[in-house]
Amino acid sequence: MNYQDTVNWMFSQLPMYQNQGQTAYKADLTNSIELAGYLGNPENNFKSIHIGGTNGKGSTAHLLASVLGEAGLKVGLYTSPHLVDFRERIRIDGIPVSKQFVIGFIRSHKAYFEARSLSFFEMTVGMAFSYFAKKKVDLAVIEVGLGGRLDSTNIIKPELSVITNIGFDHMRFLGDTLEKIAAEKAGIIKPSTPVVIGETQEETEHVFKRVASSLGAAISFADKDISGQLPECELKGKYQQRNIRTVLKTIEVLRGMGYTIDETHINEGLKNVKKNTGLRGRYEVLGNRPRIICDTAHNREGLSLVLQQLSEESFDNLHMVIGSVNDKDLSRIVDLFPDHASYYFCKPDILRGLEADALKQFFGENGIDGQAFKSVWEAFESALKRAGENDLIFVGGSTFVVSEVLANFE
User: Fold this and answer.
1) With b meaning 16 or more CB within 10 Å and e meaning fewer, what string describes 388-406?
2) Per residue in 316-354, pLDDT tens?
């Protein structure tokens, strides 16, 4: 198989949460532990930092990797999902894993994956850990996929754990209260291993303190310890200020562990995060006249921040290209959307995609009218044709909507 054949097989043959939803979720680490043993436990051959949370964990992971790279470390970065190419998930010093490694890894282990019906995520985590071990990274920044306690990445023994915040997302898997969700995400806290919490929340602070205390893990809260003027950052979403504080606190803890990271490394890392890591889709400006902005925020906590910043932009008319997955509780987010905009509803091209007509109907029942389109790109092109030079087009509602626009926009 060539690279495209390999990727097509991965997407079509293996259970994959982003396509199938709940049927692909495996609340068990047995497969991950057995796979790691089969691969020779590569996760034991490199140092790591584990990053979880509801919002901001991807941005935080990229920002931290950028700073660590500026400090001269060989940095592995594992994140999910990808936006355009599968290889975005696995990088070293910003460079995606080679097509040859992906092909070879699948070819070598395909029979094992099929025999044990491994999930897409289990297999991909195994690939990332094998790659980082083979390439002898100094430090790998590992983003949790879903939850924490039972996530496939949670077989590592990190130098440090980071939890950005807690919000209502993936509630059918993680629980229906912030306390329950926090307990699942606190599952990445390890014995005698420092943990940084990005945001102090009344409902969850006691959960993290209790777990950390029981494990002898030193705990700190970034928003309590980091104040004042923050360094300049290339990422322009105002919500990134929370992530920057989390990164600064994490670096402070790493310095205490003996890592040499100075202010120049921090400043250059934050200023050059896109170049250093390839990060996309975070309040990203794709064009001007009309101004085009996309963002992957998809739950209430994330969308509220993005849409608030959007309302502060200067424009004549607002065009919203919006799509969703079919297991999203739209009643939790619909009130956030402005009613003074033109809406272009679309279905992302995945099995979990919500039909555009259904999305249009739901928004209509809540006082927001718009048009339904057969595809994301058709919706975007329609917005582009209708928008004036001083208008603003926003693309979002789902990571997969942003992904399709980015893929075609290039």
Assistant:
1) eeebbbbbbbbbbbbbbbb
2) 999 999 999 998 889 999 999 999 999 999 999 988 899
Secondary element (H or E) of residue 299: none
Residues of 236-271 as b/e, b for ≥16 C-beta within 10 angstroms? ebebbebbbbbbbbbbebbeeeebebeeebbebbbb
Q: Which residues pair with 219 in a beta bridge?
A: 195
* Closest among 123, 147, 159 to 57, alpha carbons compared: 147
Q: How does pLDDT run across 87-100, given as a tens digit for each residue?
A: 999 999 999 999 99
Type of residue numbered 247: V
Is residue 395 within 8 A of residue 292, CB to CB? The reply is: yes
Between CA 392 and CA 72 the distance in angstroms is 40
User: DSSP 3-state assignment of 258?
Assistant: coil
Neighbours of 31 (CB within 10 A): 18
Write the DSSP string, 228-253: SPPPP-S---TTHHHHHHHHHHHHHH
CA–CA distance, 262 with 134 (Å, rounded to integer): 29
Question: Where are the extended beta strands (E) located within 279-406?
Answer: 284-287, 291-294, 318-323, 342-346, 370-372, 392-396
